[in-house]
Specification:
By secondary structure, the protein is mainly alpha-helical. 72% of the residues lie in helices and 4% in strands. Strands 1-2 form a two-stranded antiparallel ribbon. A hairpin with a 5-residue loop joins strand 1 and strand 2. The radius of gyration is 40 Å and the shape is rod-shaped.
């Protein structure tokens, strides 16, 4: 019987050690789960804050780019609608093209200046450009 009780004691000790290891493993997993839940909640709060900020910034952007607000800011800086000759378009090859607004105004100007020489640039074309450069630089 001594061997039976000895085997029983060894198996009982092994069972207790195994039970202790599994118990500690379960406790460790539960602690990790709680830590991950806290971290997940923290990240969710950060995501909510960023989404809220993005929504506020979108509203502010939409408010700032309204046509009435842009007109007001342009008036404050002394800007107005583009005059003929001020708008140019750059093509994909880098060539500067006149915009349709310029082409229409150039046609009407050419009809009015039929007696002027074709090589001379119109005076109205260069003066607005010089004025706009002076405004851009900040000199009167």
């Amino acid at each position: 019987m001594g061997t039976l009780s000895r085997e029983w004691a060894i198996s009982m000790a092994f069972s207790l050690v195994l039970l202790l290891v599994f118990g500690l493993g379960l406790v460790w997993l539960n602690i990790e789960r709680v830590d991950l839940a806290y971290e997940l909640n923290k990240m969710q709060r950060q995501i909510d804050e960023v989404e809220s900020l993005a929504a506020k910034l979108e509203v502010e952007r939409n408010t700032l780019i309204t046509p009435s607000r842009l007109r007001e800011v342009a008036r404050d800086y002394g800007l107005g609608p583009a005059r003929p000759g001020q708008i140019r378009r750059v093509g994909p090859d880098g060539a500067v093209e006149a915009s349709p607004l310029v082409a229409v105004s150039d046609d009407s100007r050419q009809k009015g200046q039929a007696n002027a020489s074709p090589d001379a640039p119109p005076a109205a074309k260069t003066k607005p450009r010089e004025k706009s450069r002076a405004k851009a630089v900040g000199t009167p």
